[in-house]
Structure formats: C-alpha cells, structure tokens
Amino acid sequence: MRNQPFPTELINTITLGDAIETLRALPSSSVDMIFADPPYNMQVEGTLKRTNGTDFKGVEGSAWDEFDSIAQYKEFTRQWLTEAQRVLKNDKSSLWVIGSFQNIYIVGDVLQELGYWLVNDIIWSKTNPTPNFLGTKFVNRQETLLWATPTPKTKYHFNYKTMKELNGGKQMTSVWDIPVSAGGERIKDDNGEKLHPTQKPEKLLYNVIISASKPGDLIVDPFMGSGTTGAMAKRLGRSFFGIERDETYRKYALRRIAAETEISDEFTNATFDITPPRVKFRDLVEANFISDDEKIYFRKSEIFANVSSTKELLFNGEHYGISKLGGVLSGSDVNANGWEVWHVERNGNRIPLSVMRDEYRERLLK
After folding, report:
1. How far apart are CA 258 and CA 351, in angstroms?
2. What is the spatial distance between Cα 275 and Cα 320, in angstroms, rounded to a whole number?
C-alpha cells in the first residue's frame, strides 16, 4: 500500500471527538508515529485517603476511564488499535502505547493478535511515585511503554547514536528513570487545581520522540489529554495531530501548545545518526584536495605511493585501493583502514586521509 497524504488542515490541530471514530476518518498509511496514552481502566472503590486525612484525587469520577467489564475494555482496545494499525505508514512507522498493570497486558495481547510487531518494552521508573496510602501492597513506581510496528515487515526509525549520546556515551537501556510531572510542569486549571490526573512528564515524551522520529514527522495522539505529546512535538520540530473527547482538556492543551517554542539542536536533529556522504579516494583527487603528483605516505614512514591514474594508489608499478595496499604493507591478508594508514603532508606535518575526507564532506554539506 502506498503512503497517503495526511489532511493538511488537520496538521497541528486537536479534534474534539471520539478517538475510534476520528481515527476511522483518517487516510490509510499516512502517519509516521502514534503515541497513545489510553484509559487505564483503573477505577477504584471509594475514596483514597492520604496519611494526613485529605482526599487523594486519582481517576475516580473520570468518565473516560470507566468500563463495565474487562471484555468491554478489551473490545475498546481492539477497535482503536485496529484503526491505528491502518493509519500508520506501511513502509516505515511505529506505535508507542503506555499503560500500567491494570491494562498493559490486555494492550500487549491485542497488539499481537492484530499482527503488530513488538520492538521493545520500556519501563518508566518513577523517581517520585505516589505512596501506597493504605499500606496494603508495594508502592507502584513503574509504567510500561510498548513500542511496536504495524506489521513485522514495517521498518521503524531509531536514533540509536543520538540516544547513546543523550545517555552520556552509554547504550540507552529500556528502563527510564523520570519523575512524575510536578511543579511548574504540572498543568493547572483556572482554579489552580491539577488539570489531568494522568499527565505524562515532558521528559518521557522527549525520549520517545527523539528516539523514534525525525524532524517533520507527523505524530498522532488519539488521547491527547493535557497536550504533552503536542507540546513536545512542536518543541522538537515535529508535526502533530491530537484527538480529545473533553473540551476542557482540549482548551488547555491548545493553550499550552501555543506557548511552546521550537528548538533545534544536535538531539532534535539526530545529528549523531546522520550517515555521512560516501567518499572515494578519487573524489579527493578530482576535487583538488590531493594533487595527481603528490606522495601519499604509509603511516608516518618514508614509504610512499603515488596517485594512480586508473584506481587509487600506484606502488611498485601495481595499482591498489588504499585499503588493499595498506593491508599488504602491514603484512596482512586483511585490508587495512586506508583512510587512517595513509597520510599526506601539509605544512610539514603528516595528516591521515580521513582528515582530508572530513574536510571534503564538510564542503559537500554546505
């Protein structure tokens, strides 16, 4: 199936309506990424009390999180995931969905029944979790994100090197230590009360968007809530489309997103994952970075080769590639890294060909 254009009038907007019905109206194979924070089906009996006697406001009373049965919730999950699967681009796209122990196993089961391909599960480890006020079980300090593609053959975007750099030069693991939204990040209503009980932290969406998308990609959130996905998409140079059934949430989300400013840096642009242009030794000669008649030195010795008229290097009357000849002179049957073992002389100093290659690439990218 060919990718379809997404309606331009919907880009960077939030539609007021039902997630499933709105998804059904979108064109097939038109979306780069979906981030979904669906209802968790986590209604509790009665009112939870803090240790000081005050009420703890969870999701009780929230109509969007009320389901009559597990079967009803599973059918709801199946319907929205079916439409999400249809609108995701068939060639390259991915879905992220977050949940807690009440619902994530249902979501994962339905994902696999529908033929999605699971890439990873990521644990959001909350550094400031809500206490278990009654002391009846362990404090729940984690939620799970499932990262999947709509089919096993669908490719996905992953900025591996960028995430490694973000993690201090170490591979990013599937456990992310991130605090719950609090302080100035927490969206409040006009009465100063927290707007949405399950607002996700900006750092969580930052990681998702930076790791699995590129600038200009379209990110759809079927359950926009307080607008974290839209706000972070705008900040990080991506487009978004949101769906929200509650007009109050939609109003505050739009206000929040309008106040965002786009940033552009090595992480938003995934500079670390950009594959540099392929360069041949002959390219440097043709661009006059290296002259036809100069000596190309093996390491910092006095052994040298000349520029070959038919390939790369001429040595003892034979034509060689820079890596092949590097291996021969190293006494190995294995090719050497020609860009590092061969040097040119500039201002009395020997510098490796790799430096000349980098200068040439910089010119190409300007």
Report:
1. 51
2. 26
- Cβ pair 66, 43 in contact under 8 A: yes
How many Å separate Cα 59 from the centre of its chain? 29
Gap between the Cα atoms of 359 and 352, Å rounded: 12
Please answer whether residues 354 and 339 qualify as being in contact, where contact means their C-beta atoms are separated by less than 8 angstroms: yes
Which whole number is the average pLDDT over 286-315?
Answer: 92
What token pair was written down for 112?
A: 């696999």
pLDDT for residue 43 = 57
The predicted-structure confidence for 210-263, as pLDDT tens digits, reads as follows 999 999 999 999 999 999 999 999 999 999 999 999 999 999 999 999 999 999
The reported pLDDT for the residue numbered 193 is 82
Residue 214 is encoded by which pair of tokens?
């590129």
DSSP 183: G
Identify the CATH homologous superfamily for domain 8-273: Vaccinia Virus protein VP39 (3.40.50.150)
- Separation between Cα atoms, residue 272 and residue 129, nearest integer Å: 33
Do residues 311 and 325 make contact, with C-beta atoms less than 8 angstroms apart? Answer: no
**What end-to-end distance do the CA atoms of the chain give, in Å?**
36
Q: Residue 199: which residues within 8 A CB-CB, separation 6 or more? A: 181, 186, 187, 225, 226, 228
Taking the CA atoms of 278, 280, 281 and 286 in sequence, report the sign of the dihedral they define.
negative
For the chain, the domains span 8-273, 281-365
